[in-house]
Amino acid sequence: MIHQPASSFYEAQAGEFILEAEELLKLRETLTKVYVQRTGNRVISEDMERDVFMSATEAQAHGIVDLVAVENEKTGDSI
């Protein structure tokens, strides 16, 4: 699953909320840059607008993971 960064800040003053929001925006920008660099997918930020669930093979096709382990039917080992 990919999604945008989130926080749950409770019982804080307005200034703390603003600082938290600024940090989340910085984190989002950094994560987006890393995803774009690793996947080559420039629209990754659109995917981060909502929760995106995907299988291991879908994540591989999306460029988020390099390899997907598969079970060897004869031995039961993951390869």
Automatic annotation (TrEMBL):
Name this polypeptide is given: Clp protease
PANTHER family: ATP-DEPENDENT CLP PROTEASE PROTEOLYTIC SUBUNIT
Highest taxon in the source lineage: Eukaryota
A Pfam family matched in the record: CLP_protease
InterPro entries listed in its UniProt record: ClpP/crotonase-like_dom_sf, ClpP/TepA
Gene source species: Dendrobium nobile (Orchid)
